[in-house]
Amino acid sequence: MPLTPLDIHNKEFSRRLRGYDEDEVNEFLDQVIKDYEGVIRENKELSNQLLSVQEKLDHFATIEETLSKTIIIAQEAADDVKSNAKKEAQLIVKEAEKNADRIVNEALGKSRKIALEVEELKKQASIYRARFRTLVEAQLELLTQDGWEALESREQALESREQEVRDREREMKEIY
After folding, report:
1. What is the rounded distance in angstroms from the CA atom of residue 5 to the CA atom of residue 38?
2. Whole-angstrom Cα distance, residue 170 to residue 176?
3. How far apart are the C-alpha atoms of 145 and 113, rounded to whole Å?
4. Measured between alpha carbons, how far is 75 from 83 in angstroms, rounded to an integer?
5. Is-contact 122 114, C-beta < 8 A?
6. Could you write out the DSSP letters of every residue in 97-134?
7. Rounded-to-integer distance, Cα 37 and Cα 8, Å
């Protein structure tokens, strides 16, 4: 069991002949008591400080552990988000490729259809030109035939007859 300042103060020594000077021993013991009290006080303060520091250390250790767990969870979440984003990007790319293939196939189909229509229109235009050429040639042939002049003379004859009819009508009007 450790000594207390009170134990030192109350300590009684037995007396002997030719012993130590009692005042000097008491004075020395008073100094030891004073120093011992200082050491005990300092020890208590250091113990209190140690407890305070230990509490802070425990608190910071808890915070560190929490932060470590949080960082791990955040990293896992980031990895999950990254993985999901890659998967989604791959799906979007596949869908875009499908749409592109569909659009290209539709365009090729339309292009073939238009090419067939153009060929059909060229054939129809060629047939139309041939028919028109035949018609124009037939009309030119009619114009170059002798019968045309006969038609012109008939037309002049008809005009003169019409004039005669008009003249007669006038005469008839004048008479009546």
Report:
1. 10
2. 10
3. 48
4. 12
5. no
6. HHHHHHHHHHHHHHHHHHHHHHHHHHHHHHHHHHHHHH
7. 11
Amino acid of residue 44: K
Rounded to whole angstroms, what are the CA distances from 10 to 33, 38, 91? Answer: 11, 18, 92
Instruction: Give yes or no for residue 81 having a pLDDT over 60.
Output: yes
Q: Which two tokens stand for residue 124?
A: 């129809």
Tokens of 66: 């929490």
Q: What is the pTM of this model?
A: 0.41
How many whole angstroms separate alpha carbon 146 and alpha carbon 126? 32
pLDDT at 91: 97
What digits encode the pLDDT tens for the residues 30-58?
Answer: 888 888 899 999 999 999 999 999 999 99
Q: How far is CA 58 from the centre of its chain?
A: 45
**Secondary structure class of 45 (helix, strand, coil):** helix
Query: Which structure tokens are listed for 127?
Result: 């047939």
Among residues 24, 39, 42, 31, the alpha carbon closest in space to that of 8 is found at 31
